[in-house]
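Build the 3D complex.
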Amino acid sequence: MEIGGILMDNRPIGVFDSGIGGLTVLKEIMEQLPGEDIIYFGDTARIPYGTRSRETVIKYSFQCIKFLLSKDIKAIVVACNTASAIALQEATKAFDIPIIGVIEPGANASVLATRNNKIGVIGTSGTINSEAYQTKIRQLNKSSEVIGIPCPLFVQIVEEGWADTDVAKLAAEKYLMELKEHNVDTLVLGCTHYPILRYTLSKVMGEDVTLVNPAFETAKAVKDILKEKDLLRNDVNRKPSYQFYVSDDPEKFRRIGGNILRKEIRNIEKVDIENL
Amino acid sequence: MEIGGILMDNRPIGVFDSGIGGLTVLKEIMEQLPGEDIIYFGDTARIPYGTRSRETVIKYSFQCIKFLLSKDIKAIVVACNTASAIALQEATKAFDIPIIGVIEPGANASVLATRNNKIGVIGTSGTINSEAYQTKIRQLNKSSEVIGIPCPLFVQIVEEGWADTDVAKLAAEKYLMELKEHNVDTLVLGCTHYPILRYTLSKVMGEDVTLVNPAFETAKAVKDILKEKDLLRNDVNRKPSYQFYVSDDPEKFRRIGGNILRKEIRNIEKVDIENL
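Done.
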């Protein structure tokens, strides 16, 4: 659409995640792009992606993308770290729409933040074993030493509401020991749930270690890309519309998701993602 | 088949679970019915069932049953507590084959074990919220007081290999506090992974509390039912065949599963359970 010679696009942004965690990314987009409409799909019936095979993650991600495309969106944000790590490259080849993942923005920020070139990355087994963050960081800074540690317990700890308990602290001490021994000065929180653990992680790593939140960095990247492609809305002072879809029972999503977003989630619909 | 007037059935037993945990049930069946062939299906692409809606668990369970029926089996064991709790009743109505779940054998054993009629049950959110164990135990012993506590972190702790660590102990102390306050003398381990935590659970609950392992009780029930229906093998002194199917990458199953069974797992095939 062209208004007064300036291209604009008032269609919504599509965001998907393997479940609830991607709401930390959505929250940052809502704050940094307050006028944009957003459609969020959480694949709650098939969470977690982090333990699944490459082939399965790509299949699921393509199904999520096809669902969002059916809603006439202008760009897609892959909020899930596992899906970004494993399926983003294939997806950008297969679909003709801007698709933004969380890996590159997170990797960029970590390279800017480090002073001793020692960077830690934590995430699900799928994200860490894919080496996506590690490879990207080494591409951006050839002299960097990157250590990836899978922390599969953290998601459940957050969903249990135990982010600030001794269980979280003990688990963090076990998982992060190797990163502390290697004296990393920057830690990428490579899973959407992890920003909720940031106080515990900061306590365990020490105040001198910079925690990078890819959710925040991704929202910045989305804004830059929409601007560059003239896809921002032209009427940003309106109340935006947020529509949510999930593949399993909406109630748990409404409850835990509401805590993450810190506002009530309305407009949730269940979709049968396997048989669309 | 009839041999010398005695009915026999040399077809395999089918066992399914949401993933790897059901191997604790398989192990007990292998020990108590050493001559029987077994076909195991682990729905590793869609694990965990414990956090999913009733409707989804029933749909998935029926798909698992249909897959096993295609292998010409003589009975089905639902090794998954969540599927037993939610889908067993519907399944026994829908399919004309003996189907044995883990709930009833576990409930029976707890009622026999308790002395003060105070019984605790731990499991996934799905199992506990279904009230399946609690209802069954109250049916069997009207004067019993049953307290169910969901312990979602335990599965991940076991899969992480942390069953005997401080993280497991701290998590157990948090989860089991209410059961200790209520002075239960019997604790049902209502999730297939939990027997692997039994030393930690016993340490936290105290030696006077009897831990009931439904996997062991279920294998006993399978033996009784096959005997009663004349479905036992007639040639038990042969080397049995074990065939495994999974819905996601077989490698993780081979590795973690091998630790649970304490023997190497061969004969694993991947099946596309969603599109059979």
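Chain A is about 45% helix and 15% strand.
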